[in-house]
Every structure is written in C-alpha cells, then in structure tokens.
Amino acid sequence: MSISIPKKEPLEMPNKTHYSVLIVGGGQAGLSMSACLKERSIDHLIFEKNTIMHSWKTQRWDSFTLVTPNWQCDLPNHPYDGDDPKGFMKRDEIIGYLDRFAEKVKPPVLEGVSVEKITKLENDHYLVVTTQGEFTAGQVVIASGGYLKPIIPRMAERIPETVLQMHSNQYKSSKQLPEGAVLVVGSGQSGAQIAEDLHIDGKKVFLATGNAPRVARQYRGKDVVEWLDDMGYYQKTVDEHPLREGVRDNTNHYVTGRDGGREIDLRKFALEGMELFGLMENYQDGQFIFKPNLSKNLESADDTYKNINARIDSYIEKNGLDAPTEAPYQPVWGPKEERENLDLAASGITSIVWCIGFTPDFSWLDLPIFNGMGAPVHHRGVTKEVGLYFIGLPWLHTWGSGRFSGVALDADYLAGHIQQFGNSLAEKETTHALSEVL
C-alpha cells in the first residue's frame, strides 16, 4: 500500500519576521519542540523544506515496522494510542500515529521552505536566511536530524548503467527491481531488514556485511527491549555511558518487528540460499571486491547478542527473578572460506541497494560549533553558541533521544532552558531600551 501525500495550497507568509524561537525541521523532533514551547506560550515558527513528517511518509519501505515495541512511543502528551502495546507498528500505522500527534500540536510551520544559512548578528539575535526571505530570532533550534545525505560510494560510478542502483531511502519493495539477483550493501538495521524483505519475496540476494551488532528479539520470556528498560539502560545518559560521546557513532543492532517481531540471524539466511560476503571494498574490471572478514563480522554480531543475553541473565540472578531458562545460542552456519571477489556478469546481479547510512549536512549553519569531524558540539542539545540548540540527534542525551521514546524528555528540557534564557534576554533588552530613553 502506498502513501499519498496531499498537495497543499501555498502557505501565506507570516506578517512578521522576528520570533522568539525559530525551529529548523518538521519531523517528530521539531514538532515535539513546538509542543513544549506552546505549553510555555513561547512564540515560534518551524521551517520544513518538504512537508511535516516527510521522511516517515516517503523514505520507508512497504513492509517497514518499528523495531522497538509500541509502548516505547511517547511523544509529548501523545503516548502510544493503539491496542497492541507490545506489538510493532507498521509503516501506515506509524504515519497515522504521527498525523494524530501533528493534529494535537497544530504547529506553526512553513512547509516547502528551506533554510539556506544561519548566522549571528551583532545584537546576538540570529539571522535565518530561507528560500522565502530573511527571519530573525532570539533563539534557534536545529531539529533537522542527523540522517540527511544518503551515502553512496564513488565506486558506484564505475558500475555499468545496466545495473539499477538505489539507496535504502528509495527502496519500497522488490517490485521496483528488475528480474535478476540483488546485491544489498550493508548489514545494519536497514540492510538486514531489506535483505530479509527481498529474500522473503523470492529474490536471489547477495549481502555485503559490515560490523553491525545484533540482538535477540525475545529472551527468557520477555522482549529484550523490556528487559533493558527494566535494567535502566534507556535511562542512562551519554555522560554515564562507558563510551561517553563515542556511543553516538555506534551502529544500531539489527532486529525486526516484522510479523509480530523476531530476531534476524544472517547465518540462517545463508542456510536458505542468501550469499554472504565481508565488507565491500571496491568494484573494478567487472568484479565486486570484498574484505575477507565475513566470519569476523558474524562472530562480532553474535558476541554482542550473547553479551546482552548474559547481562540479562545477571540481572535476573541478582534480583532473584522467576524467568524461564534458555539454551545458549549456537551458530547454525559458518562460511567455509572467505570469498573476496564476485563476478557481476556471472552472479546475475541486476540491482544494488546501498544500505550504508547517511551523513549529516549542516553546511548552512555558519557558526563555530563543530568538532574536527563536522559533528555539532553540545551538552544535552545546548551549544556554546548562546541561544542555539540541537534536538533529535542520536544519543543527544539518552538512547531514546533520536527516537519516539526519548525526544519528549529532550524537548521539555530545552524548552525550559529556552524559557529561562528568553526571560533574561527580554530583561536585558528592556534595560537597554530604558537606558537609551534616559
């Protein structure tokens, strides 16, 4: 089933160009921020270059589901409102949940307006240059997310044009693809689930793996997410995590909520005919070239899987909980050899789905707030550039910061910070105005 996005009439531009707060991005993070600012009666405006919740409505495949249980959905004043809290919403259900949230918030938003540049003025206000003119604000919240520019390597340019190539954000279903085999590059959440989707549909799948970890779906009588919640993992802040800010670079564990939820074991796919390889390194002279690390990738994913289960075992034992026991995981398949080459013509590959992630794009943000890797430096979303904030980034504060489960906490915190700073800014401006008069 496809989602049709209704065409909107051109929005009238607001009759003012200065706001207390301007928000860039109309996804769940931007609307959560709007909801919390509305509660505090703080005037604001959202710029959204497409339409609100655009990526959810256009960049998810047909069989997409949440990978965390529905009960974790908890946007501001909008918890999960269905009748299956331990289930996993499908794409259309997720969109319905988000549409109902947007209807509650009724955010002040300009859709179809892109932000081209943000700078700071001498009076400490921010200048926001958009495709619909210039705006100023006392404070700005960047809610555009960290997944903006799809990654497709330059080697893709050398692959014959007869091979259809797409990024995971373009994939909908196997029906898009021509007859023939498919090469899926990347085994993170998207790659593993798209490979499974194609495999279920009867496609011959070649999968180039990476170092993504995996996790069980159910263990000892409960969903692993429920165990981790009981253990306080989702309440742990980035400052408390052993990796500190390094956790923001971690790859998400692959698992699925499809068909009521199950784990993904790439070894099982291999038994069923999917062909697995190590990391894809190059394409030249009609050959795909892979790093000989398939065994290492599979073992590393299994180690994470077993480590999480062991932590659950320790928690159960320490607290004297009554839970069923389970036999330790045993690999069902292993590669007999490491294959480093795959011939394009002989393999019958006619399409490639690149599932190697995204990079952020903050080139339009002309302020000194980035580290040497181009990532924004902040603490809990607050930057050293007074009045500038981020929300919706992975591990902004907790594991749930970039998800439905934790963005409300971040939005409420930032709204309180914004209110406090706004009061002091107003007091400062009033004092300055009085001194000018006197």
Automatic annotation (TrEMBL):
Q: Which UniProt keywords apply?
A: Oxidoreductase
Report the superkingdom from the record: Bacteria
| Gene3D superfamilies linked to this entry | FAD/NAD(P)-binding domain
Q: Which InterPro entries match?
A: Auxin_biosynth/cation_transpt, CHP04046_FMN-dependent, FAD/NAD-bd_sf
One GO MF term, please? Answer: monooxygenase activity
* Keyword Ribosomal protein set for record: no
Instruction: Show the NCBIfam families listed in the entry.
Output: MSMEG_0569_nitr
Protein's name according to its UniProt entry: FAD-dependent oxidoreductase
In its UniProt entry, the species of origin is given as Marinomonas ushuaiensis DSM 15871
